Amino acid sequence: MAIKLYKPTTPGRRKSSVNKSDLTKKRPEKNLIFFKKRSGGRNAQGKITVHHRGGGAKRYVRIVDFRRNRYDLPAKVLTFEYDPNRSANIALIQYEDGKKSYILVPQGLEIGNEVISSKGKVPIKTGNRTILENIPVGEMIYNIELSPEAGGKIVRGAGMGATLMGLEGDYAQIKLPSSEIRLVLKTCSASIGVMGNSEYALVRIGLAGRKRHMGIKPTVRGKAKNPVDHPHGGGEGNTPIGLKHPKTPWGKPALGIKTRRKKKASNRLIIQRRKRKRRK
Known about the structure:
This protein is mainly β. It has two domains: 2-200, CATH 2.40.50.140; 220-271, Ribosomal protein L2, domain 3 (Irregular), CATH 4.10.950.10. 4% of the residues lie in helices and 25% in strands. It has two helices and 17 strands. The strands form five sheets. Strands 9-16-10-13-14-15-17 form a seven-stranded antiparallel β-sheet, with no helix packed on it. Strands 7-6-5-8 form a four-stranded antiparallel β-sheet, with no helix packed on it. A two-stranded antiparallel ribbon has the order 1-2. β6 (90-95) and β7 (100-104) form a beta hairpin. The longest helix has 6 residues, at 208-213. It starts with a strand and ends in an 8-residue tail after the last strand.
């Protein structure tokens, strides 16, 4: 995989780049897709509840198997494919009985490789999946469950990987990519390795039209609006926001305010909150 830079034939092309991934198939498997219905950010009353959404290219949802609960049945990797609904690529695998499914692609997985999922011990190699209790301490993992048999919920983005820090009692201690350290039941499953397509973060959109194809509409600064539309709005010319702290369009504190509920049940499982990265 590599980032391709365009020749600067136009101002937009000067800054844009694309990810030239090693994909082997353009059309998805027909039995593993369904059409994505979109709302344009509107609720059942037709009111906009999520801003800056709308339009975009039509896309199918690929049915990705995050649980991988066909245990002790080896599967062969057939193809690598693009998924417009996520930053990572997906792989089409085929089990010994002929059934096919999609899984997330980790770094180092190759076409023709065999992967297996089990509740027992499995070979510690990229793409295999088992419960945390059977994974060696210090190993990199991804697609981690938060509840047994619920399917992977965290560490699923391109280039992401968590570290298994230790096992104690009923829980495993995991360090997440955000630097947060939390406890997860050791009967939960996780895949071995690090998510692939790590170059995704280096792609520069370059053109406004590319963003519209993704279904994202233009975002306007609050201070460029009228006072009726945003707390930062109003004033003559280029004026400051006129407030002690920045606010959301609905008047609530923004930027740096903790939004996690103080009485959330899973708070007791978080050993160390993520460390805030300081801007240079």
